[in-house]
Design brief:
The complex is a heterodimer of chains A (about 250) and B (about 300). Chain A is mainly α. Chain A is about 80% helix and about 0% strand. Chain A has eleven helices and no strands. The chains are: A mainly alpha (about 250), B alpha/beta (about 300).
Amino acid sequence: MYTQFLDQLKRSLGVTKKDIRIYYFKGPVISFGLLMPLFLFLAFLIGSRNLSTDFLISGLIGMTLFFTATAVSPIIAPWEAQLQTLERLISAPISVATLIFGDMLASLIFGIGISLVPLIIGLFIGINVIYPIILISGIILAGVCFSSLGLLLSTPPTNAPSNIMMISSLVRFPVVFISGIFIPLGNMSFWGKIVASLSPLTYFADLTRYCIGGTSYYSILFDFMALITFTVLFFVLAVKLHQRTIYKRL
Amino acid sequence: MENVVEVQNLTKIYDSLVAVDHINFNVEKGEIFGFLGPNGAGKTTTTRMLTGIIRPNEGNAKILGYDIQKEPLKAKQNIGVVPETSNAYVDLSAWQNMMLMAELYGIPKKEAVKRAEKFLERLGLYERQNSKVKGFSKGMKQRLILCMALINDPILIFLDEPTSGLDVQSSRVIRDILLEFPKEGKTIFLTTHNMDEANHLCDRVAIINHGKIAAIDRPATLKNMIKRLNSVEISFDSIIKTETLSEIPYIRNITKEGDKFIISTEDVDNLIHSLADFAESRKLKIINLNTMAPSLEEVFIKLTRET
């Protein structure tokens, strides 16, 4: 059982490598991953000049990780079903969980890689990371969480990537606006806080602010626990739903 | 004889359409098993169920002793699949596609490199191993798909129309390789439209129509199933009118095909003697004389019309 688990884990790296080569390691994808959150951030910056750099950079890191980790992962399954390469993967001796895990790893690597850019920019303009280990752990955990969410968004059994992109956009954009990226959680109304608590990005943004600014709305332990809960929920749901729908794509 | 494929009551229903209807058959180890049928008969659906790509609604299939539904990973570990449409990753090189397959099958790197080099060389793709597949011709893609299917050194290989639409050279390379497999103890499950291919390659064939198996047997036995008039093909050194030949006894029907006449008869022996007498009386030379047995294609047409 343990050997089989390790064996499948190793095979998932093949899927990861394939995804990175085909979907992520491309100029337009990398540019999009960087520019999309940056433009959103600049639009926000122009409208609200009274917030601290620490608040803004931590929000930018959160937004970048969220957008990049959920950018490509939703379209891999419908895209591969359309090109009939999904059939090739299904005929191989790998489980659906292995396939999803491989896709998740590729998305995680991409998300972390791109998120380092705003962090480095922040360091250049003078922000101080007070708790670097917590920040790195948070980025990895949130990367897994957001990547799993991306894969969850791709479970509807359609082979048209545009349909999935539409569903994905309908979820991703509202999530960014309710997660305390642009408005501090403490300034939100009661109902605003309730809605924010339903988003995993809220906890990552809060955690990032703690690591950079030293203050957070929730306790760090609570942020981690919430992120872990969302991660497990998204990944398990993604695997279960893909197990049901993947055969309908073929 | 050991069975490598055991199919029992396998059924697939799409909405209200019964694509495959309670089929039963076995494939023996080391044989080339042909799976024939007209378009939409259920060939590809059956192959996809046997390779674990789609799930049946009813019945089960054992592949190399493992139930493809209950133990799919074990069943898939030692099979190779060449699907109907080329599905290599076009944005990867031939070599990267091979290595991806090796990783998915858990082949150690050193062994994977050895096998990839061997198969790419054997199928004439070694020189193009670092080229992206998007620049490959259909024949090259299909040869690469076969290479990818062989990377795990499979015991059983499923091929769905492997030579369909290919140039003569690619078809020949693939057929030559297929003929080598039984010598290595490998079994081939070959889905094809090509009667000539099935006739020359297969030890046994199953004919499927409207989702049901119409017949399973050796090609020669299937040909004998058809009771039909025997035919004689003949050509002379001079032009002869069809009406002139019709005077000869024992002839049921004559058709002219190019410089040859195809004559159907109930009595081959007497017809040949009569044709020889006819040629001698008219000082004609017989250039070609053949007796003709029913072809697998005729068997196929007859069976698929009946079911």
